[in-house]
Amino acid sequence: MQKFLLELGRRFSFVARQKRITFDGEHYFIDLVFYNYILKCFVIIDLKVGKLTHQDIGQMQMYVNYYTREMMNEGDSLPIGIILCADKSDSVVKYTLPEDNNQIFASKYKLYMPTEEELKRELEKEQELLENEQKL
Question: Most exposed: 2, 49, 56, 72, by fewest CB within 10 Å?
Fold first, then answer.
């Protein structure tokens, strides 16, 4: 996954794998952390082998909050959290995240790699959505 994301473009920089953060003596491990120089934000990725739960979304919210409060630098955009899971319920995502959410995304992963053209279309679509949101 780390190599795949780095191949998406020169604007991703690898920050950490299994990044440990500690609160009150309890340790948590973030699967992957990148920095995107186009979006000027941290991209936090959590990989789930099973079905997505509301606890997984809450955990990602904690990671995003941590990076927002402790790791952002002046001029950075808010961090983005991505949860890749084997299965998800759209209802769980809908009712766990606030309606105005634009920081945490959950997606099922596929057991095959998309074609280069499919990936390019998807990235262009996501970039357009982000640009439109920033204009608002």
Answer: 49
